[in-house]
Write a structure and sequence with these properties.
The chain is built from 13 helices and 15 strands. It has two domains: 212 residues, Alpha-Beta Complex (Quinone Oxidoreductase, Chain A, domain 1); 137 residues, 3-Layer(aba) Sandwich (Rossmann fold), CATH 3.40.50.720. By secondary structure, the protein is α/β, with parallel strands linked by helices. Helix 5 packs across helix 6. It is 26% helix and 22% strand. Its EC number is 1.1.1.-. Pfam families: ADH_N, ADH_zinc_N. Its cofactor is Zn(2+).
């Protein structure tokens, strides 16, 4: 089969690799019908994730059909259309029993495209299939479902839930990339009074408005702190979600929250950021970090199937799976291409819905 292989910082190739096979009784082999690229994949290619070894097939998000299962798999069968989660869960260790699947001690956690070969391929082996893939309802499009493999639960769990967003809150989201936009969508589930999105790119600010952010600010031109305080009687935001992964954006989130407020860091950081405890220690702040657990994936899938979770416009560019290199080129240049998320489809993909109808490649 063909797959996207990492060959060290700055190097990748779409090449022939061996087909995956069932190696354990709890494995499933899934034919990939729809896959996407994550910002974390770009961090890997920059060399920010040293635990990814050269020769690894990248990718940790996919929708597809189960082709083979191990003898111990009980909850899915050959032929089932499934979502492959970015997190694998053994289901037995202490952290899995607490619902902290991202910290799995039994061989799971974030392993696809990290410690084992991932989803940016024609097929993928998924360990712990009973707890790591989810059957999809008829009518849910592959394009929408694949957004629930990572970015929706990440923004929801690490941003909105960890940030303790409540009705009536003012929520500032710094960064209007895919994670930031997913945070807008999921924060709206809690009816905040204001959702403020901060991003220097006009196209991304426009996307944030379309997704439901009522205030969009340019950090290079607007007085962000002043505007946030104007909205909050001078106090600052109740919750600030960091969705970029830069020292400056993290530090701005700490600055923008009110005393007693919450900073939820979602962005992947490739270097240190300064925490100004000389001024922050007295403000009763809560700062959280985290890797997604995907414990909310079933509830998000139910909302998606019921029409309660809409993701229009999040996928801006579509490709055939054999155009993986082109998709990476487009996704890595968002300021030039205007890309938010890409979706790549197998030639004979079962896309189950209008989002996959009449697929055409959107050029970068």
């Amino acid at each position: 089969m063909r797959a996207l292989v990492y060959h060290g910082p700055g190097h990748r190739s779409w090449e022939d690799v061996p087909d995956p096979v069932v190696e354990s009784p709890d494995d499933a082999v899934v034919r990939v019908d729809c896959v996407t690229i994550c910002g974390t994949d770009l961090h890997i290619l920059k060399g920010d994730v040293a635990t990814v070894e050269p020769g690894r097939v990248l990718g940790h998000e996919a929708v597809g059909a189960v082709e083979e299962i191990g003898a111990g798999v009980r909850t899915v069968a050959v032929g089932d259309r499934v979502l492959v989660s970015c997190i694998s869960a053994c289901g037995r260790c202490r952290y899995c029993r607490e619902g902290r699947y991202g910290q799995c001690l039994g061989g799971g956690g974030w392993i696809l495209g990290h410690r084992i070969d991932g989803t940016q391929a024609e097929r993928v082996r998924v360990p712990f299939a009973d707890t790591s893939v989810y059957r999809l309802a008829d009518g849910v499009s592959s394009e929408d479902a694949v957004m629930l493999a990572d970015i929706l639960p990440t923004s929801y769990e690490v941003g909105v839930l960890a940030g303790a967003v409540r009705p009536g809150d003012t929520v500032v989201i710094v960064g209007a990339g895919p994670i930031g936009l997913a945070a807008v969508v999921t924060a709206r589930l809690f009816s905040p009074s204001h959702i403020v999105v901060v991003d220097p790119a006009p196209g991304r600010r426009a996307a944030a408005a379309a997704f439901g952010a009522d205030v969009q600010l340019d950090p290079t031109a607007d007085d962000v702190l002043g505007r946030v305080r104007d909205l909050t009687d001078g106090l600052g935001a109740d919750v600030a979600v960091e969705a970029v992964g830069l020292p400056s954006t993290f530090e701005s989130c700490v600055e923008q929250v009110r005393p007693g407020g919450h900073v939820a860091n979602v962005g992947v950081h490739g270097g240190p950021a300064t925490l100004h405890l000389e001024t922050a220690w007295i403000r009763d702040l809560t700062i959280t970090t985290g890797l997604v657990d995907t414990a909310t994936t079933p509830s998000l899938l139910r909302m998606l199937a019921a029409g309660r979770l809409a993701l229009p416009g999040l996928v801006t560019h579509r490709f055939g799976i054999d155009e993986m290199q082109d998709a990476y080129d487009v996704f890595s240049r968002p300021s030039e291409t205007g890309v938010l998320k890409v979706a790549l489809f197998a030639a004979d993909a079962d896309v189950q819905g209008p989002a996959g109808a009449g697929l055409t490649r959107v050029p970068g």
